[in-house]
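Fold this sequence, please.
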Amino acid sequence: MSPFFSKLFGFDNEKHNVRTEIIAGITTFLTMAYILAVNPSIFSALADQGMPTNAVFTATALAAIIGTLVMALYAKKPFALAPGMGLNAFFVYTVCLTMGYSWQFALTAILLEGIIFIILSVTKVRDLIVKAIPDTLKKAIGAGIGLYIAFIGLQNAGIIVNDDATLVTLGDLTTANSVLFTIGLLLTSILVVLKVKGGVLIGILATTIIGIPFGITHLDGIISTPASVAPVFMKFEWSQVFTLDMLVVVLTFLCIDMFDTIGTVVGVAEKAHMIDKENKVESFDKIFLADAVATTAGACLGSSTTTTYIESASGVTEGGRTGLTSFTVVVCFVLALFFSPLFLAIPSAATGAVLVVVGVMMMSPIKEIDWSDYSEAIPAFITATMMPLTYSIAHGILLGIIAYVVINACTKNIKKISVAMWVLFVLFVLRYIFM
């Protein structure tokens, strides 16, 4: 790679490989491409309120393109961004359909959250928050994300389903989707065990092809023209900016977005060995500023909160380490705008199988936790398990920190708790009381 492009993406010819970075980027994209189908589907509930689903599709892709491009060129790290799951559901079902506010009100809240996010990033407040998190909890975050990713994959593939009595249960393993998932999981696992280069990507593509005779992979055309974002572009509502409800919504978006991003970056960076000797994530301030800019830009485009994706872990496990990986994701999203039927043909059984394998890969930091020291082990366990159980990285982090402070303060280990941890503890307790 030429010196210009090496500098552009933070690529070192002696440490990195172009083919590896590109494969990593494609892998990341394929594991997160579901957002192109899921996000418009969720927002279809607002179609009768003047938010066209096809415009949401275009806004979703553009938000991912802009956010990930900033990550590639500015932070130069292998993280991909797109409108976040959970945050989009909060936007539609809570703010709009339950609280009764317009989608323009919700977009305004996201814009304000993004601006606050930028301020916090520039003033390095988020950097201080991450430094305050104990090393044990950081390792637990990585493991928790592994469990969370695997749970998402199992759920999307229909292996784990809802049950009114037990909340979740095993789905029907005899369905075509379940059988395809099983084939994909075994195939991908074998490729990974054999250390086949690009094994995760090969697993996705092979499972997608195998899904054709199963009647699961459906190709409805190849090329499509992107819909205009004009109906949702810069559609803000300023009349209720200074209301209590706006404050609550903004703070909720901010809290979820901030700690989802912190958890994702720390967990994936731990796996990628992007943590320096001082236990800091490389280019941490740039990564978070890129995320903040992406949120703000996404709000202008008409998208729910744009955030760093945990599926970036799939590319990292394939060897992605630089901005070239995330730039490859950008190229894929650009192509998806025009070849959406092709990318949307990838079934959930294919991505679900890969997410389970990636979840296993993300569990490795857990072995570095001192499980014999219960003042460390119990908060770590809470952090890791609460992520999949609450379907939220943010809740896992918040509850883990609360447990860490309470347990150590009550067992004469108060010296282990920094001033910053006490501040976070108070804020998180107040958050659960009032929000």
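The radius of gyration is 21 Å. The chain has one domain: 3-362.
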